[in-house]
Amino acid sequence: MRKRLSITLFILLCVSVLIFVNNSFSVFAFFSGTMQRIFSSPKRILYGISKSFPGVKKDEMSSLKKENKRLVEKMVDYDKLRKENNALVSQFKESNENSQKLTPASVVGFSGKELTPFSITIDRGSSDGVKKDMSVVSSKHLVGYTTIVSPHFSEVILPVSKKFSILAITQQNGSEGIVRGEEDFILFDHVLTTEALLEGELVLTKGNLKMDGTGIVPDLIIGKVVRVSKVATNPFQNAEIESMINFSKLTTVFVVLE
Amino acid sequence: MNIRYVLLFLLVLAVFIDSTIVSFPFVFIISVFLLMLFKKKRVYLFVFLSTLIFDSLSTNPLGVTTVGVFATSFLISMYSRQLHAADIFFLTVFIFIASFVYGNFAGYTLSPLLYISTFIVVLILFFTLYSKRGVISERSL
Fold it and tell me: Strand, helix or coil at A120?
């Protein structure tokens, strides 16, 4: 009896290995897709419930209010500049339309720490036109890029993840560098010491789009510089970046399809 | 209440929780314990299907959890047949290492301290259940 059960265990182990080795076969992709379609709604509801609990700290709220006030003040200046820019654009008859094709996606899971997740799972996959390495945004902010794409779900890697690495540029001085995750914070690295890097400066994506629409869209906000580290003997300087997005609270994001 | 049904229910719950709101290999641990505790074909098939569904929902490569669970259980069954002894310490260390290896392979990213503390809590719970039934000394090993 015991031997028979061990044989069953061994047979199931062999079947598992076969499934794992051949998981790209259409029959397994169909199984994954069907399961994802069936359980997509319960997962979305469960994730929504878990994120609806009040978890924002008081000091975080007050700093957010201050930040909001400062941004409103900046918006006044921004509006003025925007009007001037529009006038210039119309003068040169340039099209300034946003031609990006976006698809909304609900967050249905995450991996990593609860407050600082390293990746999120969204309910859009290859059947919705999502491909590997596509930008995922929330308004003008970069959320991350897709890494694993299955029929109905995709994994989006976030800037705090150690696997995250993209080209970036500062808004004010145009200093170029590489943004990568350090688990607890985002690092803007490999910036030449000859370049100016200021605290409070916005760091944007430099862009790396490919013909098929995959890659990182340029001019998306990654975050702002909060701490600069510069050593005289080192040819490069780096800075800690703070994202303006609370990744643990995200429930809806947009995938840039084209 | 029948412990088997409690654990099976916990496994179904873990499939959703593990792939959605908590990043900890609960599915792996519960599955290994179920296979150790209840040596029945129905339980094997239930665990097999549950782990496949879990891989689908968590965008893992299909079969990675299934292979991990069944390989660990197979190795445990080999060990228990050879030594005929209830070595809780060995099982604890073995499942801990196995779940840590699986966790790294399946993309779990946890701080070692949180991982160890959560794992200890889970193990205490399960071994309490085991010892109440006398499963470790009489049935499982």
Answer: strand
Query: 10 Å Cβ neighbour count for A104?
Result: 11
| Residue A197 CB neighbour total at 10 angstroms | 22
**What's the total number of domains in chain B?**
1
Name residues 173-202 of chain A within 8 A of B (Cβ).
183
- Mutation for testing the B interface, residue in A49, A111, A158 having most B CBs under 10 Å: A111
Instruction: Give the model confidence (pLDDT) of A141-196 as tens digits.
Output: 999 999 989 888 999 999 999 889 999 999 888 889 999 998 888 999 999 888 88
pLDDT over 80 at B107, yes or no: no
Does B109 sit within 8 Å of A19, measured CB to CB? no
A211-220, B23-32, B88-97: range with lowest mean pLDDT: B88-97
Host domain of residue A60: 56-97
A213 to chain B, any CB pair closer than 8 A? The answer is no
Residue type, A246: N
Q: Domains in chain A: how many in total?
A: 3
